[in-house]
């Protein structure tokens, strides 16, 4: 416990030291060491940052704004309801750092019944006036270092700590805004829009770069960096965008109210300094900011599309359909695809400069990069001079994943592996990191891997820890693309994949036949199609898209597999259900065979016709797919992963309920898991793992008579078996030791009855006994200390009592008398403890579990009459 506390203190001090600003370099290059000078420099920086530059406001015309519908505009400004406010509140993270008000969201959640009427009144007033007072909209700015060594104020990332009341208002507003963004945001933007995901852009970028390379056509990829993206957004431009996109005057007034009353105090080394009034920018930490920024960034997409219409920009033409892709956006992360004509690149540069001037989002060309496809270095360098940016090589990191390299190359995944390594201090390397971390932790040296990794990866129910196999988990994630494909026909990623690969013969999926030379994501996705399709079921509507013979729509197998003799001789194997059965009853049975059927085949056909008698077609209902592995019928990565990792063969006997269902510390549960596998470092195991570490391998330190093994030390040792006999005598049960400690865990003795309380107490007592025996063994070996069985029994009682106290099964009604007693099948009474304060203090000292009801002494059901220590 002391070691853990010291570690926490060291980490806390380390974080504080990293954020502490001892010196700062100003714009003139002078190093400031004085606290007052540092504070003045920081405040001056933020005053300039959030001040709107002097100049005219510009508007932009002639774009396709894709405004939201009138119904959506009206719904955005509908009166707020208590249910809507409550839903938003309880979706929020309760423990986020508070703002100037000092209240966390947890206060509002825990006191909801008390404050809900006042909160609803606040929303009603905001709905009427659209005004948020300055104290409610005040913020603290926390400066987080971007890198290990910080010299300038620009080396820190400003994060806003906002008052909880404003955060709740913004959460409700952002929930409404999120519901309509898909109507007005172009498909090239992948962030903060319902139904779009970060991996969409990664897939598209990899596919089109790979296809461009294989085609031999020249091209460039231009990745830009916006300078202080959120902080530089002009409010007047945002208001124009909202107007053009069909948002009502009332909504625009609300947005202005959320922005115009913002003020900041900067936390300099933990102290709030000054107040800065903002006139531009969006706060990082405001729930509204990502959605408002997406609306602003969408204007750049509209400008680029307008230039494409006028043939001023080309972009990349992808696949047989020549689908055009000129750029992709994910929030402020923007990447462009262009041919190598300097005129096009000059047009792109001009558009970026114009967009930066009107919106405030200026591109930092020094941090932007251009990458060539099928170009020599001299050519790409010339193009970089045109754009005034850097020329760089492949692969690159795009949205955290590699782009433009060979996934099979050894170094392709190094950036991803490096990130995982950094978090802890492809598949095989990641699993090795997991294994080392599980058994050795961080910075604790190399330790033995006590249990095989394939066992660790199994579900807990059959003896593993549920880690899951990395390769199978990857297949499950890839399966999500196959589920999304037939459902997202309007998405840009769908159009790109369809254009490059075409459709599958089943009419639902993309073509899964990918040439071996491809180095793109869809090649890996297509390889999981067979496993994915084996679980997919079709739901018959009008029967026009489901293949009669080859799709899984009736029974546990496709009809072609159920009736192979008929399938072999049928002419059209891809015929849809509607063409076979017809739209109405009686069915037309339009089946054409290559020859006359034999008698056995006629019998099969009659059986087929009888089995389909319950089928009903619905001409107005389209066919659909179903995922039977989840109760909702919708695909989930978890259900697919569990299906892929299903245990084959005879089920393994493992006492999972004994190990994991008991309310004891996880560290102890992990130890019991090792005992169940007989993988603890007993002397017989040490002889196998590290013979030079085994102490007296033939002698058990507890009895000094027999060799030490898991079964012996935890079950058959004379000291241990005496403790077991005492426990069973307490339960008034006759007992014969089982064959192994695993059997001991697996057998349901129900020593204290079959009620939940009795089972919880019995499990706690059993596990406490095993734990105390192991502690005693280690104390005798490493500390040369020994205790008698009476002392060990008292320790078992104490541990079992602590764990039983923490058990949910033993928490009782607070209104009951402290002298609480419960009958357990007539065998004994469980009574409350008189020395409650001693137990409470012991729990605090041990740090085993948090105390509940700190202001009320609860009825404690801890010690059994026979378990209570003497004296």
From TrEMBL:
Reverse transcriptase domain location: 125-403
Domain of life: Eukaryota
Record CDD domains: RT_nLTR_like
Xref: PANTHER family: NON-LTR RETROLELEMENT REVERSE TRANSCRIPTASE-LIKE PROTEIN-RELATED, RNA-DIRECTED DNA POLYMERASE, EUKARYOTA, REVERSE TRANSCRIPTASE ZINC-BINDING DOMAIN PROTEIN-RELATED
Entry protein name: Transposon TX1 uncharacterized 149 kDa protein
Organism of this sequence: Vitis vinifera
């Amino acid at each position: 416990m002391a070691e853990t506390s010291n570690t926490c203190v060291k980490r806390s001090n380390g974080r504080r030291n990293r954020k502490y600003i001892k010196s700062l370099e100003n714009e003139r290059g002078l190093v400031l060491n004085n606290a007052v000078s540092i504070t003045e420099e920081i405040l001056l920086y933020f005053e300039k940052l959030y001040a709107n530059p002097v100049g005219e406001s510009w508007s932009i015309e002639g774009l396709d704004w894709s405004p939201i519908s009138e119904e959506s505009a009206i719904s955005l400004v509908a009166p707020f309801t208590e249910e809507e406010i409550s839903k938003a509140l309880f979706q929020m993270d309760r423990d986020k750092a508070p703002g100037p008000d000092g209240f966390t969201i947890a206060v509002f959640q825990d006191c909801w019944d008390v404050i809900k009427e006042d909160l609803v009144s606040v929303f009603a007033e905001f709905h009427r006036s659209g005004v948020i007072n300055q104290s409610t909209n005040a913020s603290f700015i926390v400066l987080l270092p971007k890198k290990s060594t910080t010299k300038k104020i620009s080396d820190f990332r400003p994060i806003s700590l906002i008052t909880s009341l404003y955060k709740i208002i913004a959460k409700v507003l952002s929930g409404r805004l999120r519901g309509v963004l898909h109507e007005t945001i172009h498909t090239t933007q992948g962030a903060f829009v319902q139904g779009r995901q970060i991996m969409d852009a990664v897939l598209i970028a990899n596919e089109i770069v790979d296809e461009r390379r294989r085609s031999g056509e020249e091209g460039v990829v231009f990745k830009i960096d916006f300078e202080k993206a959120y902080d530089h957004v002009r409010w007047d431009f945002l208001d124009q965008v909202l107007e053009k996109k069909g948002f009502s005057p009332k909504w625009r007034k609300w947005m202005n109210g959320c922005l115009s009353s913002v003020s900041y105090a900067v936390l300099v080394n933990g102290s709030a300094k000054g107040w800065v009034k903002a006139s531009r920018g969006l706060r990082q930490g405001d729930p509204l900011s990502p959605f408002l920024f997406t609306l602003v960034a969408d204007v750049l997409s509209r400008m680029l599309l307008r230039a494409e219409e006028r043939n001023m920009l080309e972009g990349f033409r992808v696949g047989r359909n020549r689908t055009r892709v000129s750029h992709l956006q994910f929030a402020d992360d923007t990447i462009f695809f262009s041919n190598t004509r300097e005129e096009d690149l000059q047009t792109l540069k001009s558009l970026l400069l114009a967009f930066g001037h009107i919106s405030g989002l200026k591109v930092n060309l020094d941090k932007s990069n251009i990458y060539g496809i099928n170009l020599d270095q001299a050519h790409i360098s010339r193009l970089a001079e045109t754009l005034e940016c850097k020329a760089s090589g492949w692969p690159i990191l795009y949205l955290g994943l590699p782009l433009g390299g060979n996934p099979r190359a050894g170094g392709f995944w190094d950036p991803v592996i490096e990130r995982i390594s950094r978090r802890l201090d492809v598949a095989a390397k990641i699993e090795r990191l997991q294994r080392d971390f599980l058994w050795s932790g961080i910075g604790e040296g190399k330790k033995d891997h006590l249990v095989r990794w394939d066992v660790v990866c199994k579900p807990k129910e059959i003896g593993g820890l549920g880690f899951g196999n990395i390769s199978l988990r990857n297949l499950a994630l890839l399966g999500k693309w196959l589920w999304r494909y037939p459902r997202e026909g309007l998405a840009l990623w769908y159009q790109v994949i369809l254009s490059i690969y075409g459709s599958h013969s089943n009419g639902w999926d993309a073509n899964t036949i990918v040439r071996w030379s491809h180095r793109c994501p869809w090649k890996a996705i297509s390889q999981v199609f067979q496993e994915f399709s084996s679980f997919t079921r079709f739901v018959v509507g009008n029967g026009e898209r489901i293949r009669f013979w080859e799709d899984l729509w009736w029974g546990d197998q496709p009809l072609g597999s159920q009736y192979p003799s008929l399938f072999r001789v049928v002419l059209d194997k891809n015929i849809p259900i509607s063409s076979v059965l017809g739209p109405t009853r009686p069915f037309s049975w339009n089946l054409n065979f290559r020859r006359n059927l034999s008698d056995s085949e006629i019998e099969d056909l009659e059986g087929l016709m009888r089995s389909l008698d319950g089928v009903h077609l619905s001409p107005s209902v389209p066919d659909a797919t179903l995922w039977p592995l989840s109760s909702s019928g919708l695909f989930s990565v978890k259900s697919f992963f569990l299906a892929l990792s299903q245990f084959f063969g005879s089920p393994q006997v493992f006492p999972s309920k004994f190990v994991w269902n008991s309310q004891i510390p996880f560290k102890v549960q992990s130890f019991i898991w090792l005992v169940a596998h007989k993988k603890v470092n007993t002397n017989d195991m040490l002889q196998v793992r590290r013979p030079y570490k085994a102490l007296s391998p033939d002698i058990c330190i507890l009895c000094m008579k027999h060799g030490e093994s898991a079964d012996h030390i935890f079950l058959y040792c004379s000291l241990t078996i005496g403790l077991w006999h005492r426990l069973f005598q307490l339960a008034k049960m006759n007992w014969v030791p089982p064959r192994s400690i695993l059997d001991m865990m697996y057998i349901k003795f129900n020593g204290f009855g079959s009620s939940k309380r009795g089972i919880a107490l019995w499990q706690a007592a059993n596990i406490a006994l095993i734990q105390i025996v192991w502690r005693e063994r280690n104390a005798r070996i490493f500390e040369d200390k020994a205790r008698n069985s009476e002392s060990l029994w008292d320790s078992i009682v104490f541990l079992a009592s602590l764990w039983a106290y923490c058990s949910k099964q033993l928490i009782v009604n607070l209104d009951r008398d402290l002298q609480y007693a419960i009958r357990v099948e007539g065998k004994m009474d469980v009574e409350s403890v008189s020395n409650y304060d001693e137990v409470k203090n012991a729990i605090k000292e041990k740090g085993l579990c948090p105390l509940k009801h700190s202001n009320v002494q609860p009825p404690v059901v801890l010690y059994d009459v026979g378990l209570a220590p003497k004296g």
